């Protein structure tokens, strides 16, 4: 019987590391170090255009490499990315490599490198079957690629089930992949509650004693923010005709739909812009509740952040995290993303809770998200690597070679073959 060994070195690859990724690599590094190993982070590029995170330059307790220092991910061609990631893996020489999904050039480079060198390939996966329309041909291509991975570290049960459908053996799937730095959000939120006056200069926090609904998103179609603004207007109209004073709605983020949202917004809506990680906990700490109306969100890490900060949650059923982080009536409510009336009712119901009831909801949010931490991430990745190791001694299948060649020749940019709106 094959007995998996403890890998000496695991490499985690992303287009570029943001705050979430740094927390995860720390958790992984601590876990692998217990067995005498290490986790190494590989950024493909220094920056990207998809997210507005500040470039993280602080020293880390783990080794970190950048395949293309000073470059922007979207400016690189697929062939450049594949060559750069391959060269970096040759330098790092890991026993296992974990990479996000399978559809981007960096992921294709990882799986080809692992098969060539007989190393363990772990797919970090946060897609669900319901996230997009699925065509038989595209699914067949996906299965060919996914079967080249040895194991999968998935976000939740739905994500793991889809990975199994695409060809990962059920016994090689681990869940719990999507985590944030819970401790930082909890501590920052509590500090803001203890000294709210420190944050009066931030947009939306000029009256920190007033509870408000908080949403944090990129302003893109699938985040469903026009529906939130309309549902909020209905909530406000009903609250003004009887009941407690209506809470404001603070929108964090920015994007292509901002002008549309500003035209749609009425009284009580505050556009606070994109905020960096250093001040996000203050918004969570001073909010009365968090609302996430997405039509489709594969997971929704902002839900983790809000739960770690101890907030009641109003989360659409289109959000992957809802199944794991919301218990209806105990820490919040869910609603169909296309039912604006249901969202209005949920906002009214939550705003009418007493302070004690909202505190109890927030405490249960913390309890639920305590299963998703950097430490549990480290354990989950370690398990996924060990489960994948028995399958790692194999080369690329002929079908996979053909698919990788076709994608290398036909891909116009790094996002080619990616289905869900980023």
UniProtKB/TrEMBL annotation:
Pfam families: Glyco_trans_1_4. SUPFAM superfamilies: UDP-Glycosyltransferase/glycogen phosphorylase. GO terms for molecular function: glycosyltransferase activity. It comes from the Bacteria. InterPro entries: Glycosyltransferase_grp1 (IPR050194). Signal peptide: none annotated. Gene3D superfamilies: Glycogen Phosphorylase B. PANTHER family: SULFOQUINOVOSYL TRANSFERASE SQD2 (PTHR45947). This is Uncharacterized protein. It comes from Rubrivirga marina.
């Amino acid at each position: 019987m094959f007995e998996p060994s403890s890998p000496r070195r695991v490499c985690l690859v992303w287009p570029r590391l943001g705050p979430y990724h740094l927390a995860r690599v720390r958790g992984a590094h601590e876990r692998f170090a217990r067995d005498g190993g290490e986790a190494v982070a590989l950024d493909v590029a220094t920056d990207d255009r998809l997210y507005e995170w500040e470039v993280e330059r602080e020293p880390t307790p783990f080794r970190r490499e950048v395949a293309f220092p000073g470059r922007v991910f979207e400016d690189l061609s697929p062939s450049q990315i594949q060559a750069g990631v391959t060269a970096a893996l040759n330098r790092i020489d890991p026993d296992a490599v974990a990479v996000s999904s399978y559809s981007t050039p960096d992921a294709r480079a990882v799986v080809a490198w692992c098969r060539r060198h007989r190393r363990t390939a772990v797919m970090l996966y946060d897609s669900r079957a319901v996230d997009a329309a699925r065509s038989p041909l595209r699914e067949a291509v996906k299965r060919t690629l996914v079967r080249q991975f040895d194991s999968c570290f998935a976000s939740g049960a739905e994500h793991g089930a889809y990975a199994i459908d695409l060809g990962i053996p059920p016994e090689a799937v681990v869940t719990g992949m999507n985590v944030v730095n819970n401790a930082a959000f909890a501590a920052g939120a509590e500090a803001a509650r203890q000294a709210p006056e420190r944050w009066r200069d931030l947009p939306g926090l000029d009256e920190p004693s007033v509870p408000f609904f908080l949403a944090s998103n990129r302003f893109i179609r699938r985040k469903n923010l026009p529906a939130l603004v309309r549902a909020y207007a209905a909530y406000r109209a009903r609250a003004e005709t009887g009941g407690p004073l209506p809470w404001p709605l603070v929108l964090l983020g920015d994007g292509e739909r901002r002008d549309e949202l500003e035209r749609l917004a009425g009284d009580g809506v505050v556009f606070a812009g994109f905020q960096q990680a250093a001040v996000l906990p203050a918004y969570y700490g001073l909010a009365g509740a968090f609302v996430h109306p997405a039509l489709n969100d594969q997971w929704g890490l902002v839900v983790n952040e809000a739960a770690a900060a101890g907030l009641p949650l109003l989360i659409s059923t289109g959000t992957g995290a809802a199944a794991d982080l919301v218990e209806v009536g105990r820490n919040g409510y869910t609603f169909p993303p296309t039912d604006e009336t249901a969202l209005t009712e949920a906002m009214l119901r939550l705003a009418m809770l007493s302070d004690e009831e909202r505190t109890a909801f927030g405490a249960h949010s913390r309890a639920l998200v305590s299963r998703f931490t950097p430490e549990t991430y480290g354990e989950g990745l370690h398990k996924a690597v060990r489960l994948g190791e028995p399958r790692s001694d194999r080369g690329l299948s002929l079908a996979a070679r053909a698919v990788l060649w076709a994608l290398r020749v036909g891909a116009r940019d790094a996002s080619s073959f990616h289905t869900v709106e980023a």
